[in-house]
Amino acid sequence: MGQQMPRRNPLRETNNEFFKTEEACRIGDQVLAYQRCTGGWPKNIDMARKMSGEELAQVLKDKSRHDDSTTDNNATSIQMTYLARLYQQTNDVRYRDAFRLGIEYLLSGQYENGGWPQFWPETRGYQTHITFNDNAMVNTLEILQNVMDAKPPYDGNLTDKAMRQQLSKAFDKGIECILATQIIVDGQRTIWCQQHDRETLKPAPARAFELPSYCPPETASIIRLLMSLPKPNANVKQAIHGAMKWFDTYKLTGLRYERTGQTREERNVRLVEDPQAGPIWARYYDLEYCEPFVCDRDGVPRRRLEEIGIERRTGYSWYNSRPAELFSMYDTWADKYDPKHKVNINLKTKGANENGLIQMYRRPTVHRTDFDVVVKTGESIQAAISKAPETPTEPFKILISKGTYNQKVIIDRPNIVLVGEDRDSTIIVLAETAKTRAITEYRGRPVGNGVIVLQEGADDCVISGLTVYNNYGTTIENTTTHQMSIFGRATRTIVINSNVWADGNDALSLWAPGSNGMYYHADLNLRCPGVDFLCPRGWCYATRCHFYGDSRAMIWHDGRGEKSKKLVVTNSFFDAKSPTLLGRYHHDSQFFILHCKLSDKVLDSNISYAYSDKVLDPCPWGQRTYYYDCSREGGHSGWLNNNLQEAENAPEFHGITARWTFNGKWDPEQRVRDLWYVLAY
Asked: For the packed helices 93-108 and 136-148, what is the interaxial angle rounded to 10 degrees?
């Protein structure tokens, strides 16, 4: 039932003759069926599509829902307008009564301060915020304005005088809320965020990639509404002047937002230099520097489009020119209503990126004073770890300066945060196999094979900003036997922003006892000529990683013991020196591969059981390999087709997040955000 709206939506029809047809009434009756008992409607449903009897029965059953009525994505307003037009041509009071019920729904959701949430009466999480996103509140105010002014198709006896008076009061309160939420800096009015806290009225977050910020697109709609007011007061005038000045100050010039690729596999977006391009604005500007940023589903702001995964990069509008449409409107408006305070603005002057006002691609910086220990070249990383408490209650943060460290690093306690100064020039390198370990025991406990080894109990460790390389196969002996780069028996392990290289098998091996570990990876370069070089045991989520193999399967998973264990890889690229399998398994396993691209060096073959001559594990749950929005250069034989619907509970692609991977028991991305002041990259 949750189908996307078609390109040509009949609910947007304006031709009066259409509303005299049987088809218009058929659609209208379905719109009535979808109206909830609240008076509102749900979103993202094609309500014009003919339904079967079973579908209609389910829709009628859902009328009692209180949790999906919304004004988001034009829901409720578009249905109300359709019913208004239909009533005007048919005089069928069912459509009028449903419209009036919609009005009452809109009035019921308004906060005392004049704002509206995104959903009501039942809300959750960020839905309670005052919502300008997708023009939700502006659409509501516009329909109230048109109805109270009795503009067609809202004229006649569609409403009565008492209802229009109610709407007038609600409209005025809504305008007051807009003025109260405008962001003011040093006494100057600027623009708005997509959503504002209903109590404090300050900018508020919504989805993980929607952070508190300056938001030009939503502001453009707000200013258009304010400029439509027939009698703007002094506060409205100041709000418009302030926003237009901000638009002019922070426009971006000499840049073009370009979508590339003709097919799903080739699609991309980028910012390119173009001296002839008109001004554009970012979707988000940060609240500290007033500089553009983008964001992935991990909630960490980035400066460049290529630093976020392809799914969010291409699935969201990060730059646009909407404010430009207001410049000529503003000239006319200001000349009429407030020429004395008119702001001098010009679309042809240089933008903030070209006149030096902002740094377009500011890199995050860290301060050495934020670390507990700083390791310099020639010093012992192990000694720094030993300075941490045995059971630190707070993260113990270690910065490793640029340089090469020929050391084995053993992490034997929890809550260690190991950060390299630069991932490409902070290098920990060691040549080691299981048989050639120089250190087999540390503080009375056996030590595994690896450059960095996390002992059992070294939980909640974070590793970032390093090159970790086990180079045994190229410096000691030409072999691809087990040569772990990072080996671990801890849980809740985070490895991000690093090069993890090995000359042999199982480069990144996180093997908590009982296959009960939880692991998170982001922005890794994984390179290995061996097999299974990402091989977690338990639950693992990896995003924005680059895999480079050579002839043998790249990923592997051990999910024994619990059906929910899984390896999730999103927004990543798989490549190889020679024809190479994507992955394999020989224990119970489960793979989710989403928004990934495979080069033609990755064999046209599904992840499958590793052996044909023996069975190490009967794998009673069978082959569980699921894909969404993946592509392979040169095409594939069908195994990469979308099949999430075959997975247990048929998850939607946008629901497959880190928290989902770990069944809500761990939120590694929140930990990354909490530590961003030292992890920044």
From this structure: 130
3-state secondary structure of 342: coil
| Token pair belonging to 272 | 């390119």
End-to-end CA distance of the chain: 42
Model confidence at 264, pLDDT cuts 50, 70, 90, reads confident
Q: At what angle do helices 216-226 and 161-181 cross, to 10 degrees?
A: 130
Decide if pLDDT at 3 tops 60: no
Q: Which helix (H) or strand (E) holds 493?
A: strand 493-502
Please tell me whether the peptide bond between 152 and the residue prior to it is cis, using omega within 30 degrees of 0.
Answer: no
Residue 297, token pair as written in the block = 């589903």
At residue 261 the predicted structure's pLDDT band, cuts being 50, 70 and 90, is confident
| Number of other residues whose CB lies within 10 A of the CB of residue 606 | 18
Give the pairing of strands 441-442 and 445-446: antiparallel
pTM: 0.92
d(CA 203, CA 214) in angstroms, rounded, equals: 8
Average pLDDT, the chain: 96
Q: Note the Cα 313 to chain centre separation in Å.
A: 9
Structure tokens at 459: 């939980």
Structure tokens at 274: 């173009």
Tell me how far CA of residue 482 lies from CA of 72, 369, 433, 529, in angstroms. 53, 39, 6, 11
Decide: helix, strand or coil at residue 126. helix
- Give just the sign of the alpha carbon dihedral 576, 577, 579, 580: negative
CA distance 499 to 480: 18
Beta-sheet pairing, 583-585 with 608-609: parallel
Task: Kindly compute the dihedral angle of the four CA atoms of residues 500, 503, 504, 506, in this order, to the nearest 10 degrees.
Answer: 0
Q: How far apart are CA 10 and CA 661, in angstroms?
A: 39
Report whether 487 contacts 443 (CB < 8 A): no
Amino acid letter, 404: T
Q: Tell me how crowded residue 442 is: count the other CB atoms within 10 A of its CB.
A: 14
Task: Supply the angle between the helices 22-34 and 53-61 in degrees, to the nearest 10.
Answer: 40
Does 1 score more than 80 pLDDT? no
DSSP 434: G
- Does residue 166 have a pLDDT over 90? yes
- Residue 417 falls in which region: left (phi positive, over 0), alpha (psi -120 to 50) or beta: beta
Decide the pairing of beta strands 631-632 and 597-598.
parallel
674 phi, psi to nearest 5 deg? -65, -30
Per the structure block, which two tokens stand in for 195?
A: 């959503």
